[in-house]
Amino acid sequence: MSQKTRKIEKEIKASKTSRLLIICIDRDNDVGEKANIVTPVVGRDACIEAGQRLALEDPEDADSNSIFSAIKTYEDLISKGYQAQVITVAGLKTRDVHADEKIASEIRSVLEKFSANGAVIVSDGEDDESVIPLVQNILPVISVQRVVMKVSRTVEYSYAVFGKYLKMIAYDTKYSKFFLGVPGILLLIGGIATIVGYTAEIFAVLVSVLGGAFLIRAFDIDKAWSNWTKPTPSGFIRMFTLIAGIILLLASILAGVVAVDVSLVDPEAQLLNIISNKILVGQFVSGALPILWIGIASIFAGTFLSNWLGGISKQITDSLRLIVLVALYPTIAQFTNILINDESSFTLIPPLLAGMAVTLISAVILFKKFKKRADEESLSD
Question: In which order are the strands placed within the sheet that holds 19-26?
Fold first, then answer.
């Protein structure tokens, strides 16, 4: 006889009870949610079947072990000559007051058929045990048994797992390029710096390389670039428009600088004073705006065309990007006029309202169009 059984027997003798109800509590109703079992489950055979079904649906769920532990407790008590019955009751997934009311109702329904005068609670944690005060209002609780799963991890198994991860880091390119490649570059640069004597300068390079690697991995820039450069028609379109867009964005800076009236720039002025000069800022933005907008439109157009060719259902978003880009141009162009010519800020309202109207109307039209197409495709399928 196990130590737990001896403890329960002592508690039973102390309480002088003769008819025991062994209750396995599943407050979050894993039995019903995962195995579609209707509770209360009454009797040894029914509980065995419920535990087996739950274990098959989710072998890692501890509630199946609680059910089998309740059955073991029941068998031990029966073998000692006690009158007992084993049941499994469940609450609700919400684990709220309604769940506790359901557990109480199920216990009362069992007591109508088996008039016990004491209960043994079996659970796998504190959440299930929180309903014990509720059970005590219905039936005296003689003993509470918590089921703790024993997990064995041998040293050999731990070494095998550790070796598996080391092998992945060393030979799997998905991991090795970051865990070995980046430290390798840093060590190589550091070694060269020590030899040539430029330790301070190389330290800045090391920090920059490490920071760049963290940013690339954090924002999945490497994956995004690999998707953009896949050897497919849509991939080549994305790659071309991306490179063209970046070149145009850089060219827009030069165009903005050229557009600035040099005579208005004080050679001795600080950078902050130059930036705060609204005429200079307006001239820069006015000169850079056309090429800047063409560059952004090039990138958006590449995404639009590649998604269209690839059959990806992102046409609405891609189309709206281009429409919003066009609709914003008059507003930003008018803003540069305000900076340069000192016009009233109210002149921004007409192009802004026009841009909003164009965007909203386009969104409605595109949504209806693609919704109609999706409905037609679903009907044809």
Answer: 41-42, 83-90, 19-26, 118-123, 141-146
Q: Please give the Cα distance from 319 to 238 (Å, whole number).
A: 15
Paired residues of 97 in beta bridges = none
Q: Which amino acid, 276?
A: S
Q: Same domain for 15 and 131?
A: yes
As a whole number of angstroms, the distance between CA 87 and CA 89 comes to 6
Same domain, 160 and 134: no
Range of the domain at 181: 155-219
Nearest to 93 by CA among 26, 23, 41: 26
Mean pLDDT of the chain: 76
Distance (Å, whole) CA 178 – CA 203: 20
**Cis, peptide link before residue 40, omega less than 30° from 0:** yes
* Cα-based distances in Å from 369 to 287, 314, 332, 352, 366: 37, 13, 30, 26, 5
Contact in structure between 284 and 259 (CB atoms under 8 Å): yes
Q: Answer for the pair 166, 142: CB distance below 8 angstroms, yes or no.
A: no
**Burial class, 378, CB count within 10 angstroms (exposed 0-12 / middle 13-18 / buried 19+):** exposed
Instruction: List the Cα angle 81/82/87 in 5-degree steps.
Output: 130
- Closest residue by Cα to residue 86 from 99, 65, 100, 72: 72
CA 10 from centre of chain: 50
- pLDDT 10s digits, 100-109: 899 999 999 9
Q: Are residues 214 and 233 in the same domain?
A: no
Number of domains in the chain: 3
pLDDT tens digits for range 221-258: 666 666 555 555 556 566 666 777 777 777 777 777 77
Ranges of residues in the chain whose predicted pLDDT is under 70:
1-17, 126, 148-161, 173-175, 199-201, 216-241, 264-276, 305-318, 342, 345, 348, 370-371, 373-381
Residues 88 and 125 occupy one common structural domain: yes
| In a domain? residue 177 | yes
Kind of pairing between the strands at 41-42 and 83-90: antiparallel
Quick check: 77 and 17 in contact, CB under 8 A?
no
